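Quick one from the shared queue. A colleague (R.T.) flagged Alpha-galactosidase as missing a structural entry in our internal table.

Convert sequence to structure tokens.
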Amino acid sequence: MYLLNLANLVALSHLTGVALSVALQRRLNDSLGLTPHMGWSSWNVAQCDAASETYALGAANKFIELGLKDLGYTYVNIDDCWSTKERDASGNLVPDPAKWPNGIRAVADQIHGLGLKFGLYGCAGEMTCAGYPGSQGHEAQDAELLASWGVDFWKHDNCYTPCVSDPPPQTCWEASVDTRPWYATMHDAFKSVTSVKPILLNICQWGRNEVWTWGAQYGHSWRIEADNWGDWASVVRIGAKASEIPQYSGPGGFNDLDMLFVGNGVLTEAQERLHFGLWAIAKSPLVIGADLNTISESSLNILKNKDIISINQDELGIAAGIFQPPNAPAPVAGEIYPYWAGPLSDGVVIAFAAASGGGTFSVNLVDVPGLEGGSYSWKELYSGEEGSGESITFDVADDDIAIFKVTTS
């Protein structure tokens, strides 16, 4: 369990300045992903049926209509099932003409014309998870094609990859199988086309092989766990994992907690607040997975909380982690711990996460990593409540969260 204290928080903060430039040299050197990417993905809306021109352009127009673009939501990403089931005679991926009557390039151009970016999905194996052509053995060819289309983002999934068994299963969980070479190959392919079109690479291998320890060498973000299945148990599982590894996120490469299930009608409003807020302070990419045509006002308001988005997009790029105040119970593996904190370029973020039960939470600010004794000003970013002093005490309901930006008085 990675508990924040003043010493390691200071060490993380030293990623600024000269040290930050050195850290970035270890990444892709393409100026992408300096903050977590924000956008929308098709999969949670209608799975394969949403992998179309209609859905892509519809989402892009909704970004404008709903004011999402102005808040930083930029990427319109189409997930699995966008291509035909076979490559063409030259070995190229082929957009399904029934889904993309105008072709990928034309759609990407329209989306770019709105000031947005366009993303697609592929797999490191022989096939994608839904049985469409994967990139294994075609990495360089696919990178060149994507660059020629003007694609900005690529999610590289992990289905039908080499495994202990032959033929490979859809998903291989064998710990002895190293996934790193597949993502290194795709990284090299994208690096070779950077002069044509820099492409943001999302590593989606479900947290295998401790990807957070090496993902920054090859991608701009990396999934840290199995899928978010849209239920509360998934939020808890993934949030708990994020608390163990915040130190691996930074400008150019971030822990990816998976797509958001805010607005999908499964979680309560309180759970949606915790889900979104925790993803934001953990510096996860914020990728909407809801139908923007039918999303509720309450869910949309959560996704449009500009103060919480500003925490996620803070230029320092350091993820919040958990800390244990004096007399507080110790963290429990697999549970979301209540006390979180992290440095910002202009303050500190503190959160009380009530995933294991609501109540009155209190902390003396001198016990928060990054803060010293004295009086501070604070603002709770969902309610807008403000205060000042040497401590914060706040009531939080079951499954809800309170997030505070703390600055010097």
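DSSP finds eleven helices and 16 strands in the chain.
The chain has two domains: 6-312, 321-408.
Added to the table.
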